[in-house]
Amino acid sequence: MAGKEFLDLPVEKKFNNAGRVPAAVWEKKFEKLAPKDQNLFQNGGFALALNSSLCALISNNSIRNVLNVTQSRYSTAASMFLLPFISTTVAYEATVKSSLMAGNLNCEICALIRGGLVGAVIGYFYPIILALPLNALLATRFSTSPMPSKENALRFWTSLSKPIFRKTRLAAFIQVALGAYLGSKHHEIYLKMLRIPEPGRDPEKLEE
């Protein structure tokens, strides 16, 4: 196969071979990307994770105010910052970036949807849901607010969380939009890496 023909292979055919590309080759291809693409691919997910932590801190503070909880302020804040940050980072890495590098996510729309779902579920809903039981335990332990009976628990927590969801609607939109944007951009960078010839191989000598 001539060198030009190799470089002009249809992207679909390169997709089929993406899963067989060794990690060392991906690393070499990655090093040939523009610095801004390298930075976005490596660190873009951290922006989503940081927003997740901010959502967690806002919801945690709101729930503490409703339940009159003043104890364990710093330890609770640390937990609410770290857990969503780590969870969002791991979820995005597993569902988007790792799938791209394994050659299992070759659809741009799929990458966009996955990124948006990570932003919505792990980056927005999870931090708020996490804050509810954490502060409920503190309220029960320090008797800062009467807790509902088992029969009224669902209604109580639903009523308590509704204002928080309304208050953070903008954060929800940002998380979904950012996750979708990152998924789309990471897929675009993945395509750029696919188009880079494998290092140490002469396209003129490759056979069909």
Describe the structure.
By secondary structure, this protein is an all-alpha fold. Helix content is 77%, strand content 0%. It is built from 8 helices and no strands. It has helices at residues 3-7, 11-18, 23-31, 35-67, 73-101, 108-142, 153-167, 169-195. Helix 4 (35-67) packs parallel to helix 6 (108-142), helix 5 packs parallel to helix 8 (169-195) and helix 6 runs antiparallel to helix 8. The protein is elongated, with a radius of gyration of 23 Å. Mean pLDDT is 85; it is low at 1-13 and 204-208.
End-to-end gap? 6 Å
Number of helices: 8
Percent of residues in helices comes to over 70%
Quaternary structure of the protein: single chain
Average pLDDT works out at: 85
Largest β sheet strand count, sense and barrel closure: none
Number of strands: 0
Residues in β-strands, percent? under 5%
Poorly predicted tracts of residues:
1-13, 204-208
Order of helix and strand elements from N to C terminus: HHHHHHHH
What best-fitting shape do the alpha-carbon axes yield? Answer: elongated
Keywords: Membrane, Mitochondrion, Transmembrane, Transmembrane helix
Subcellular location: Mitochondrion membrane
Organism: Python bivittatus (Burmese python)
Membrane topology: Multi-pass membrane protein
